[in-house]
Design goal:
single chain, mainly alpha, 79% helix, 10 helices, Arp2/3 complex 21 kDa subunit ARPC3
Length: 254
């Protein structure tokens, strides 16, 4: 009886062990991807030494169920690679503020919180980008205006990124707003890749060509538009100005 029970229990135990190991592997891969996305986005900027893209991504990630620890570690990794530049410090401070705002919102007895999720995400991202920017402005009007513009960009982008960051691997068809969200996230990642301290331009160029080839499979118009968009991201990130026309032509011909 004991031997029979052992034989019956062993397959069940092995199945549970495999399932547990698979879940841990998936969780580890998710941590690495989330950290890598934040590392790239911390290097992307619009004006000055502020990083509104990373703050917007952090707030959207919290709304989409991403883990705050790997995102913060990815932001800190860019700080280590860049020698803790002002941009990395402002991004990490903004992410910490966004996390604190999210904890505060979840503790408040607010009815119908899910219905106002996009607005809350926008407010979190805007405030988290504005406060470090005003602190670093030093009372200079131009720097204060830069902080305000970065805050507006973060507030507008954060709800738009939630659709892409909430996607699961088993999704086969995407809605139009989810496609737009994925396109925005990809453009921001390309901008950040070009600003990485080590071989960022080369990595961004390879990723831009890869994305252009993928989009060209949807037709020449999609390939041309995708190539021009990827080239614009390269111009903002690594300063490769002619890349837009070249990638657009490649997407059209592919």
């Amino acid at each position: 009886m004991t031997e029979t029970a052992r034989k019956k229990a062993f397959p069940v135990f092995r199945t549970r062990l495999k399932g547990r190991a698979a879940r841990r592997v998936r969780a580890g891969v998710a941590w690495i991807l989330q950290g890598a996305v934040m590392t790239a986005l911390t290097g992307s900027r619009l004006l000055g030494d502020l990083s509104p893209f990373s703050v917007a991504c952090f707030a959207a990630g919290l709304a989409a169920g991403w883990r705050p620890l790997p995102m913060a570690l990815g932001c800190a990794l860019y700080g280590v690679l860049s020698g803790w530049s002002a941009q990395a410090v402002s991004a990490l401070t903004g992410c910490a503020l966004a996390g604190a705002f999210e904890l505060l919102v979840r503790r408040l007895p607010v009815p119908r919180l899910a219905a106002a999720r996009d607005g809350i995400t926008a407010l979190e991202a805007g405030a988290a980008a504005l406060l470090p920017g005003l602190f670093m402005a030093g009372g200079v009007p131009y720097n204060m205006m830069t902080a305000l513009l970065s805050s507006c960009a973060a507030a507008l982008l954060a709800p738009s990124l939630t659709g892409a960051m909430a996607l699961r691997p088993d999704r086969k068809r995407l809605l139009p707003d989810e496609r737009l969200s994925c396109a925005l996230l990809a453009e921001m990642i390309l901008i950040g890749m070009g600003s990485l301290p080590f071989a960022g331009g080369e990595i961004a160029e390879g990723a831009a060509v890869f994305v252009t080839l993928i989009l060209s499979s949807r037709g020449p118009a999609m390939g041309a538009m995708g190539g021009i968009a990827c080239g614009a991201a390269l111009a903002l990130g690594s300063g490769v100005a002619p890349a837009g026309s070249a990638l657009g032509l490649c997407g059209l011909m592919a």
